[in-house]
Amino acid sequence: MKPLKRYQYERYAVLCKLAYPRVFRHTRYGFDPGGQRVITNRSGKIIIRVLWSKHEEEVIVVFKGSHSLSDWLLNLAVWQKNCQGFGLNYSIHAGIHALLLQESQPARNEDKLGVNVMTRLENILFPLIREGKRVSFTGHSSGGALACVFADYVEHQFPKSVKRVVTFGQPAVGNWRFHKNYRLKHKTYRICCDLDIVTFLPPFPFVYWHVGKVLWLYNGKIYENTPTIFRLGRSFISWLIRPFSYHLMSKYIRNKDFFDDR
């Protein structure tokens, strides 16, 4: 697995932070004027941004994390749903499953009604892949979980088309089969910041599993693949004082100095 460079970390972290505001001026970050498509949820709110430039190989898909009461309630749907309908041989968190299959409201005149989020993203992304572009996926919180599932789905449809997956503050996604069959372990970086409680959820060991390489940003250092039980032990007392402060994207961006520019 290649190391994640500082400029890559910073770019994905900034894009994740900027996914939350309604307006995002993508041309300020090197993307073409026509190089952005947005995907909305059932309420018409933007949850995914697809960004690219004509002369760049990489397309970046940014998944927004929970940003409404209904999204947070879906996080409580901790049972698992089978993904065989996607052609994937594993089960994932029922809330993540519901987010992918919810109806996506039209964002452009040519968008049709009655299309779910997953299909809407396929319609935008697959033509770009057929043009020869490769895709990087990134997301914060539940958006990171969505990024992992859809990236694996894309890799199944178009082998070697996924460049990397970078998630921030991501909860666990699926069952043991997900952990075992996920195709992108060598390209997935799971960033955990200090004492972020969300990275330990759902709280069911051996029922939910993470994938990829964990990079733990803690006490001024970066630790690779630190066991969950060790992170949990170091974090327990701090949780009693400030359990959610480390989940903010601003905290992840401040830690960009962990990565070198080589």
Automatic annotation (TrEMBL):
InterPro entries: AB_hydrolase_fold, Fungal_lipase-type, Sec_MonoDiacylglyc_Lipase. One of its GO terms (biological process) is lipid metabolic process. SUPFAM superfamilies: alpha/beta-Hydrolases. Residues 60-204 form the Fungal lipase-type domain. It holds the Pfam family Lipase_3. It comes from the Bacteria. This is Lipase (Class 3). It comes from Vibrio aerogenes CECT 7868.
